[in-house]
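ok here's the first one, seq then struct tokens
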Amino acid sequence: MEQRNWAEARERLGDDINTATAARMYDYYLGGVHNFAADREAAEKVIGSMPLVPFIARANREFLGRAVRFLIDQGVRQFLDIGSGMPTQGNVHQAAQEADPDASVVYVDIDPVAVMHSRGLLEGNPRAAAVLGDLRRPNDLLDLLDGPEVREVVDLDKPVALLLVAVLHFVPDDDVAYGAVTRLRDRLVPGSWLVVSHGAAEGFVAGEAKAVQGVYQQRTATPGGLRTRDQVLEFFGDGFEIVEPGLVWAPQWRPQADRDPGVFDTEPERSGMHAVVGRKLH
């Protein structure tokens, strides 16, 4: 089964060295080393159209770290990170297990190279795993998540934090995106959490956004699309309580009081990312 999934993923993504992927471009924005020439070339083209992109990526990564630490404080010990990307600095398992070594994390990504590198990083860590999965195929994904490989690490019959951070804008078809999140959301038990960050339709200059979307459409197998704040909140549906400070720009979500001044302090909307966390009540 897994061999077939890897073959299908490689076919969708094309040649792993000569075709850019969103995961490896993101790694490049963050200053990582798990990327190829095709990824760097595409990423530089994006940066040429929108120079703030590396800062946006870092602001989003910092939001992820704050959200994980917040959830640890709320008693969460299971994390499911879908669209996890390449293993770069500030991974979920690092933040979670630093706070509690017993915290468990499963990473899911569509990019076989990202999963391969993640598995190498996680070798010898029994409370973390990386698997190949496609958010756009929620039924197959749920079968995977309920399978023995994942259940040894994260059990969906117990509360879990579902992280959909900077991934849903790579599923621009609304029917597919909302349908997938609904299937995953419905599988979560009460007391679980949903964490979302998403490219904001209100946050980008139209010309810049079109240019960036064009690069992803031409260079990768995962073209992007922006959504408004109301559209992002729709991913939570009924039965979720949105925690303070609600849906805000990523740098505004529970910033650390002792942090250094940031690029987006005076104009947080330039971060271009909505961020929101909610808890499932029923």
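and now the second one, same deal
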Amino acid sequence: MNTDPGMGTAALFRGLVDDAGLFPPTGLPMTEALERHRNDLAGNDPVLTHRFLCPAGRLAELRDHLTFPIRLGLIMDTPALPPLDGLAVELVEVRQAPDETPQAVSERLADGLPAGARLFVEVPLDGRGPLPRDGSGPGLKFRCGGLTADAFPSAVDLGALIAHCAEYGVPFKATAGLHNAVRHFDSALGVDRHGFLNLVLAVCAAAEGRDPVPVLKLTDVGELVRLARAVPQETATRARKLLVSYGSCSTSTPIEDLTALGLVARRPSATTRTTKESK
């Protein structure tokens, strides 16, 4: 059986995973998170965005320990944007207040956004309140889980937001809860965890005008792999323009899962690469 991913399949997972090592449940200390990020940069795996997510309130700590250039995703946990001089900020992610809209958040932060940075506004997963209907405005951010069962949105709620983004061309990011590729039951929390492979394929379904909810609910590993291998290049490209990336506290598990499923090519180990380069 051919286990090499096709062009469409490879495009689905290229630059998919942001480094959220500072965040729970992993919650690495700053020094360890940066060291892991440095190692990931050296490995240059195409599944990773090689973008480091950091809370705004920890930027001073980041600066104290930073010894190499990074691409930064800033997670707003402060009332205002902090000074960003000298930092290459690509994304700014902020949770909207109950009385705000994504557009209002965008207008409030517009003057402080660094040049070239894209704003993503985290919205409630129940879809209440007006959402952007213009892909040139702020992007959206969806929380797919957390530390308690009630933090996990239903497949119907998540699917409705994905369908909205596909209909109006609104890019979005995902965060939290997407620990593994395939949807599965977490007995410790008593809840079904969304799979990041389900999420990617649900966006593909929406990009083709189909209902994303059935794909979000799939737990059949073989069927999910079959669907991933059948995604046309054009659909993969459209889907990944919508799904910009998702934050993962592990940067190794997504790669391991996709490799085990045969959806990304297995990369030689650092030792193997060094040996080949020395010949």
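notes on #2: Residues 30-43 form the longest helix (14 residues). Residues 194 and 266 are 24 Å apart (CA to CA).
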